[in-house]
Write a structure and sequence with these properties.
Number of helices: 11
CATH architecture of the largest domain: 2-Layer Sandwich
Oligomer: single chain
Radius of gyration: 27 Å
CATH topology of the largest domain: Alpha-Beta Plaits
Order of helices and strands: EHEHEHEHEHHEHHEEHEEHEHEE
Number of domains: 2
Number of strands: 13
Structural class: alpha/beta
């Protein structure tokens, strides 16, 4: 691996520490040292190693107890631990793996074999972290954790959330003369700015569909101020669109629709799966956008009633929505 990788050696024998340090430093590893389990826990408060080489028989706190405490810590439990010890009875090896170690190497050890094991587990950990990053790019953290825990059927009902749909007005006409690369670059730049705003307001982006952007607040972690947050997001998106237009010297307008109510949320698919929402609340939020006015934020009565004291609205009156009939709507007066 590279010099960026740091290994914590935990051993109470100076000769072992010296030998391991020499072997690992020659391969470019950075080294931290502790002489017992208790000291290792103190080191971990200041240094986050990429891997731990852990002896078992040490004073004050042995390696088994240290491993158990490390794996019980949310901050440290993902650090790979290799036991490096002369305790090589089957029951010791089994105990080490049961405590969460990724490998168990007996002393005396072969340097080439040890380096091979270290590099293998560092590579595996790097791939694990990359897979986790990719998973978190498409799923909320809480849902990703449930999926990793083996929960294959994820479907939850939420009594009340706020859903937002946004769409670029006249996108097809606007991009007709642009190259495919320029269209993708433009959308990526704009939606990345939306993503940053969503993170700021604790909004969960659900997906993009072409030039449409869908987000929700109030799930998977419920919150009482979901409508206030989604309205802040809507206003910020309008501001971003105006700034984006000025920077690129183009006329880009959004239509945004917001609705509040119950939804069902869950994961669909096994390969290219997504976390999605269903229900009348979602459908009506989408209609608020598609039946909206360019450069405005249109909301339903459920949204209006929750935030009318914080925002100024203008009644638009009733609009005909397929399958729902006449629906009262309001337009945000200033954004």
């Amino acid at each position: 691996m590279t010099a960026e990788n740091r290994i914590l050696i935990v051993d109470d024998t100076p000769a072992n520490i010296q030998t391991l340090t020499t072997i690992l430093k020659e391969k470019g590893f950075q080294i931290s040292v502790a002489t017992n389990g208790k000291q290792a826990l103190e080191v971990l408060k200041h240094v986050h190693p990429d891997l731990i080489l852990l002896d078992v028989m040490m004073p004050e706190m042995d390696g088994f107890e240290a491993c158990e405490r490390i794996k019980a810590s949310p901050e440290w439990h993902d650090i790979p631990i290799i036991f490096l010890t002369s305790k090589t009875e089957t029951e010791d090896i089994v105990r080490g793996f049961e405590l969460g170690a990724v490998d168990y190497v007996g002393k005396p050890f072969n340097a080439h074999e040890l380096l091979a094991r270290v590099n293998t587990h560092l590579s595996m950990d790097r791939l694990r972290r990359e897979n986790e990053r990719l998973l978190l790019n498409i799923l909320p953290a809480a849902i990703a954790e449930r999926l990793r825990s083996g929960n294959e059927l994820i479907a939850d009902g939420f009594a009340e959330v706020s859903v937002l749909f946004a769409d670029i007005v006249g996108f097809t006409h606007m991009t007709a003369s642009m190259s495919a690369e320029n269209v993708v670059e433009m959308l990526n730049d704009l939606f990345t700015r939306f993503d940053l705003a969503a993170h700021e307001f604790s909004i969960e982006k659900i997906k993009t569909i072409g030039d449409a952007y869908m987000a929700v607040c109030g799930l998977p972690d419920p919150c009482v101020d979901h409508t206030e947050k989604i309205m802040k997001m809507a206003v910020r998106m309008m501001q971003i669109a105006h700034e984006f237009s000025a920077e690129r010297n183009m006329s880009l307008q959004l239509r945004i629709g917001v609705n509040t109510g119950p939804v069902v949320a869950g994961i669909i698919g096994r390969r290219k799966f997504i976390y999605d929402l269903w229900g009348d609340t979602v459908n009506l939020a989408s209609r608020m956008e598609s039946h909206g006015i360019p450069d405005t934020i249109q909301v339903t009565r459920s949204v209006f009633e929750k935030v009318k004291d914080q925002y100024s609205f203008e009644p638009r009156g009733a609009i005909e929505v397929k399958g729902k009939g006449a629906i009262e709507t309001w337009i945000l007066a200033h954004h």
